[in-house]
Amino acid sequence: MAKHNRTVAVAFCLLLAAACGRAAEQGDLGYTPAPENLEARQWFQDAKFGLFIHWGVYSLLGRGEWVMHVEDIPIAEYEKLPPQFDPTGFDPDEWCRMAADAGMRYITITSKHHDGFAMFDSKVSDYDIVERTPYGRDVLKMLAGACERHGLKLFFYHSQLDWHHPDYYPRGGSYSHGRPESGDWQRYLDYMDSQLTELCTGYGKLGGIWFDGMWEKPEADWRLGRTYRLIHRLQPQALIGSNHHVAPFPGEDFQMFEKGLPGRDPFNKGAGISALPLETCETINHSWGYDRQDHWPKSTRELLHYLIRAAGNNANFLLNVGPKPDGTIQQDHRKRLEAMGQWLRKYGDTVYGTRGGPFAEQSWGVSTVKGGRVFLHVLGPDAVITLPEIGRPVRSAALLDKTPLELRATPLGTVVKMPENRPDEYDTIVEVELE
Ligand code: FHN
């Protein structure tokens, strides 16, 4: 029996060691977030709303950021785009004003997307905006300055997947047109770390780094622990997140979801919902990068409901625009952002600084909480709503202008009678007092 127990114990230790080894490869096992990182997490959760920007040389073709892969464009052909990229209409202050007026508190912009083209002045590659385009200016540096002036934090989206770098090998399932079957993976990771070092040292205090792309090679050793330690050393307050669609790895500071509320996004591979700050991202229309055929923006109602439901699910909302090749942003997208800003100026108090409320999402909407204040966001025309039992009786309910609402206790929960005249067309906000 003792021998059997010893064998089980040894097997267990071996398994644990293997698991730890794997986790160590993929994350920073000894990670303790710095105080400024913890503070930044609070700020992030309070901020609630950010602007996502997908901008690169692909915008010239106006067929989205995946055009190189989708149309199987040879690298030599794709390299003809940068010499045509001259965004003379780019005005970073104007972008920041637009974001701030929309009620956004941060911007996350593509420093490098899957096409491998750096939108900043990289010294470890000449495949970048300064060296390859007639524009010749570092748009990220310009944006960093503007963000500072407008009180917005700046995050960089950085693609780990790379369709251009010769050392991105072995490749994943996406673009590979005519690329040689060779490359040095460690050298590629060194290159990525060097570019990240540039981003973490030349653009002021960053909000964070938003990784994307390791989903295409989930089994590879991405040396995450090393890369995350590098970023945390250079920018302790910077929040690291990765869009890998699985549960967060050690060293990550927030968890993100794409095109869906936490745990309900279509790419989810059993990611679960962690205790880290949460964020979900979505497009205004249907494209991340500029698509000149996409004239179907979501309605203001849909976008506001997304933001409110995200808040009720304890998550931030990162809403994307894909600027045009000249650096301007589509008019119909700007209109949506303006309308969201108008709504937030009136009702932002029930969104910013809140956390997911005590009532889980219901068919009528969501709840948020701030301090002791609980807000119900009733998103539909329901004449009555039912608050499920949460072990704390509801003492009173009122609209924000203090108009009291009738309550009735039922076996299914507390029923609240909604007013006939709604103060707002998108969201009827009810403040409830709990025992
Ligand atoms: O492939 C990308 C896509 O182009 C875009 O950047 C989105 C944003 O979340 N993420 C990827 C796929 O998960």
Labels describing this entry:
30% helix; 11 helices; binds ligand FHN; 5-stranded antiparallel sheet; Immunoglobulin-like; 435 residues; alpha/beta; globular; 8-stranded parallel sheet
Can you offer a commentary on this structure?
With 435 residues, the chain is an alpha/beta fold. The protein has 2 domains: 21-353, Glycosidases (TIM Barrel, Alpha-Beta Barrel), CATH 3.20.20; 357-434, Immunoglobulin-like, CATH 2.60.40.1180. It is 30% helix and 20% strand. A hairpin with an 8-residue loop joins strand 9 (355-356) and strand 10. The N and C termini lie far apart (56 Å). It binds ligand FHN. Ligand FHN binds at residues 65-66, 212, 243, 258, 267, 281, 288.
What order do the helices and strands come in, and which of them pair?
Elements (H helix, E strand, L loop, with lengths): L1 H25 L8 H13 L1 E5 L13 H4 L4 H4 L13 H10 L4 E7 L16 H4 L6 H12 L2 E7 L25 H17 L6 E5 L11 H11 L4 E4 L12 E4 L19 E6 L16 H13 L2 E7 L9 H17 L7 E2 L8 E6 L2 E6 L5 E4 L6 E6 L7 E4 L2 E5 L10 E7 L1
Parallel strand pairs: 1-2, 1-8, 2-3, 3-4, 4-5, 6-7, 7-8
Antiparallel strand pairs: 9-10, 10-11, 11-16, 12-15, 13-16, 14-15
Helix pairs in contact: 5-7, 5-11, 8-9
Concise overview:
The protein is of the alpha/beta class and 435 residues long. The protein has helices spanning 2-26, 35-47, 67-70, 75-78, 92-101, 129-132, 139-150, 185-201, 224-234, 300-312, 331-347, and strands spanning 49-53, 106-112, 153-159, 208-212, 239-242, 255-258, 278-283, 315-321, 355-356, 365-370, 373-378, 384-387, 394-399, 407-410, 413-417, 428-434.
